UniProtKB/TrEMBL annotation:
Belongs to the glycosyl hydrolase 5 (cellulase A) family. Belongs to the actin family. The keyword Hydrolase applies. Residues 63-340 form the Glycoside hydrolase family domain. One of its GO terms (molecular function) is hydrolase activity, hydrolyzing O-glycosyl compounds. This is Glycoside hydrolase family 5 domain-containing protein. One of its GO terms (biological process) is polysaccharide catabolic process. Pfam families: Actin, Cellulase. The lineage of its organism: Eukaryota, Viridiplantae, Streptophyta, Embryophyta, Tracheophyta. It comes from Ensete ventricosum (Abyssinian banana). Keywords: Glycosidase, Hydrolase, Signal.
Length: 790
């Protein structure tokens, strides 16, 4: 330890900001990756441009750039832009201007709106306007997936709309192949166009397995950079035929499969049956019909899902929670239906409100901000290449506890006194162990119930039965613990403030009117890089029960910091104290909390830290001198309980010694240890002791009326070469004795029992209480400079 200052060295992990996506995209096993091999999660929204006007919806309501910025502001990173085949294959149709296309449908008001909000688009051809939309999305850093929704412009989809499969009235295979080639070629030089979906929702009596992927080779040949996205049969709900025989294509690392899932796709089950049972049944069906591709190492893109965002459809509300739990667990790529808040015209109705739309009818704001908040939880990837996909910064896998009904995750609050819901980006890192404990990563603390209708807590007794959590109900989203051995179960729940509670488990089965949403939690696996502040919060407050835990800390102190700093390029050094001043209070608090709570495990109220007020920091040298004076020579300034300065204590100890040894003791006062290393400390102590001794001689002479004069006392305080190491040297001598090992406590025992284990000192057979110390002073001996007196 240095003479006058506690030298603190801190290490902090530095997190680089997300790197821009290096286009083009490709695939690696089940993941979409960029050109650098980093994972890219497609979090898209569908923007319709395939209806009768063949103009991207909403251009009469808002400027194109404002719409693109709204997409980005809602957290989406790509747009699945739909288009009808006739846009390219029918030249008389594609050459119409936006104005002509709208006016021929009697949409004069929409044309006027485009003139106001997007005047530069009004007289472009439909093809040029489509290109302008793609270009503007690209300028706002949004990727684009082109989706051939239909052949003849109109609303999609119906089993009898003659657009379903090859041979239908409006689905000529040769025309389809020609249109795909033209679209792929048109955007050959546009890096923002990252994929093409060959055809939306194949359906109808003519659908078959052998012909459905014919367009893949055409698209790849025309534009080898883009992803080729193949849909399933039966409205894109069935890819089961691929479980036995995969597609045989000439290219690799560009193929993605897509799947659609809506609440109404599951019949009326969501509105009439128990949500737990429906969720389990539907996810089982999805796994059999498409989800198995993920296990086989193929990317699966949920290119359409959505709900009535007015919130009035209870069946949709149940469906969404189930969907979000599945999407989070599988960390799947997806695209929401839809962006548009309204249509120019849909199925003959002008200005139809799209209740599934992310934007309001007037395209001015989000239709349902709480829905966007829920969706934000799955917009960023959870997993990286070590699980086993590529792309995220390396981070040890952990669990997040996701609450799909809110789109939030369980976090610890700033006081660490309770658990609550918070943003998943700030999620606590958990580990769901084989023993069914939910352990806060980096600590020995685990989730425990307190009782019915009480907040859940963190505790260290993880072996008790109440600390074990089972995933019950068909959905496996009820996380349950037994309060007693008689089967008295409670489940995790939330209150109105988002506090994590434990309540009686509800809606486990049968009842179709019960809403289990508050008790639905999904334990998902993640390797997201955990926020530095989260680990600060956890590890600066909780006890470290094992030295191995230190390997996982996001900061280190002293020599550990130097080791990490020299062995890695991702860490930096921080010095919270500079020239005697605390300049980084956050780092300083980390140090204090780590020492008090994690290492010493003692009550901070019993241990004080002396700090100089900011206004006194103008003269550092003077303040150092004042602190030294206060600690050793005027302790009453600090605490009224300590009124005896160090020179008086030393003098008292000598005076309690046999009278014939006192002069020798005054002459041989030996300093040892770091607290005596202050500059000129020995001279100050010697001066004050000399004054006390001389005053005693004067008093003694006065009492004897100077008949007998005492000889002056020589006071000598020795500052010797081994002073710095004396304490450690003495400790090593003590530790080398056989008795030491019988009397000492191990580090593991200290970690288990804390500071209380040190109250009784078996070495010296005395009880040390706060404020009671015994100081043994020995004469200085040149042959044996240090002594131990028991």
């Amino acid at each position: 330890m240095t003479p006058s200052l506690l030298f603190l060295l801190f290490l902090f992990a530095t997190t680089a900001s997300p790197a821009p996506i290096a286009l083009p995209l490709s695939t690696s096993s089940r993941w979409v990756v960029d050109d650098d091999g980093r994972r890219v999660k497609l979090a898209c929204v569908n923007w319709a441009a395939h209806l009768e006007p063949t103009v991207a919806e909403g251009l009469s309501k808002q400027p194109l750039d404002a719409i693109s910025k709204s997409v980005a502001a809602m957290g989406f990173n790509c747009v699945r832009l739909t288009w009808p085949l006739y846009l390219l294959t029918d030249s008389s149709f594609g050459s119409l201007t936006v104005r002509q296309s709208l006016e021929r449908l009697g949409l004069a008001e929409s044309a006027a709106g485009v003139r106001v909000n997007n005047p530069g688009l009004l007289d472009l051809t439909l093809v040029q306007a489509f290109q302008a939309v793609v270009s503007n999305l690209a300028s706002n850093s949004l990727m684009v997936i082109l989706d051939n929704q239909i052949s003849k412009p109109g609303w999609c989809c119906s089993k009898y709309d003659d657009n379903g499969f090859f041979g239908d009235k409006y689905f000529d295979p040769d025309e389809w192949l020609r249109g795909l080639e033209m679209m792929a070629t048109m955007f050959n030089s546009s890096a923002s166009v990252v994929g093409m979906s060959l055809r939306n929702e194949l359906r109808g009596p003519k659908q078959n397995v052998s012909l459905w992927y014919r367009g893949a080779e055409i698209v790849h040949s025309a534009n080898p950079d883009i992803l080729v996205i193949l849909s399933g049969l039966d409205y894109d709900k069935d890819l089961s035929f691929l479980s036995e025989k995969q597609v045989n294509l000439s290219f690799t690392k560009k193929l993605v499969f897509e799947y659609h899932w809506y609440g109404f796709s599951d019949g009326g089950d969501w509105g009439s049956q128990n949500p737990n049972e429906v969720c389990a049944m539907v996810i089982g069906n999805i796994t059999r019909k498409g989800g198995f591709l993920l296990e086989q190492g193929w990317p699966l893109f949920l290119s359409e899902f959505g709900i009535d965002q007015r919130g009035v459809n209870e069946a949709d509300n149940h469906f969404l929670s189930c969907f979000l739990s599945f999407a989070a667990e599988k960390d799947i790529d997806w695209a929401l239906w839809a962006l548009q808040g309204s249509y120019y015209i849909r199925e003959g109705q002008l200005g139809l409100d799209e209740t599934y739309g992310a934007l309001s009818w007037d395209w001015c704001k989000a239709r349902n901000s709480s829905f966007i908040q829920r969706l934000s939880a799955i917009q960023s990837p959870f997993q990286d290449k070590h699980l086993p996909g590529p792309g995220l910064p390396k981070s040890s896998p952990y669990n997040m506890i996701f609450h799909p009904s809110t789109g939030l995750c369980i976090v610890t609050n700033s006081q660490l006194k309770q658990l609550q819901l918070g943003q998943c980006a700030e999620s606590s890192a958990w580990s769901y162990t084989r023993q069914k404990n939910l352990v806060l990563k980096g600590t020995k603390y685990c989730l425990q119930p307190e009782g019915v209708s009480k907040p859940a807590k963190l505790g260290v007794g993880c072996k008790v039965s109440t600390a074990k959590w089972d995933l019950i109900s068909s959905s496996k989203m009820h996380i349950s613990s037994n309060l007693t051995n008689n089967g008295n179960n409670v489940c995790l729940d939330i209150d109105d403030n988002g506090t994590i509670m434990t309540n009686r488990c509800k809606c486990l089965s049968l009842d179709g009117t019960c809403n289990p949403g508050s008790q639905w939690f999904k334990i998902i696996r993640s390797s997201r890089e955990v926020n530095d502040q989260i680990f600060k919060q956890h590890r600066s407050q909780f006890v470290q029960h094992s030295a191995n835990v230190m390997a996982d800390l996001d900061f280190a102190i002293g020599e550990e910091a130097l080791i990490y700093y020299h062995s890695s390029t991702t860490y930096g050094l921080s010095y919270p104290i500079h020239r005697g001043q605390v300049e980084n209070w956050d780092a300083m608090e980390r140090f204090w909390q780590q020492c008090i709570f994690n290492y010493l495990r003692c009550d901070p109220e019993d241990h004080y830290f002396l700090l100089t007020e900011n206004k006194e920091l103008k003269n550092i040298l003077r303040q150092r001198h004042k602190i030294l004076k206060m600690i050793f020579f005027h302790p009453e300034i600090y605490n009224d309980s300590f009124t005896t300065p160090l020179p008086a204590i030393v003098d008292k100890c000598i005076q309690l010694s046999p009278i014939d040894t006192r002069r020798a003791l005054y002459k041989n006062i030996v300093l040892s240890g770091g607290s005596t290393m202050f500059k000129e400390f020995h001279r100050r102590l010697q001066r004050d002791l000399k004054r006390i001794a001389d005053a005693r001689v004067v008093t003694s002479n006065a009492q004897l009326n100077d008949d007998v004069k005492s000889q002056p006392i020589e006071v000598n305080v020795v500052s010797h070469p081994f002073q710095r190491y004396a304490v450690w040297f003495g400790g090593s001598v003590l530790a080398s004795t056989p008795e030491f090992y019988d009397a000492c406590h191990s580090k593991a025992e200290y970690q288990e029992y804390g500071a209380s284990i040190c109250r009784t000192n078996p070495v010296f057979k005395v009880t040390n209480r706060v404020g009671e110390f015994k100081l043994g002073l020995l004469p200085y001996n040149n042959d044996k400079p240090f002594g131990i007196q028991s």
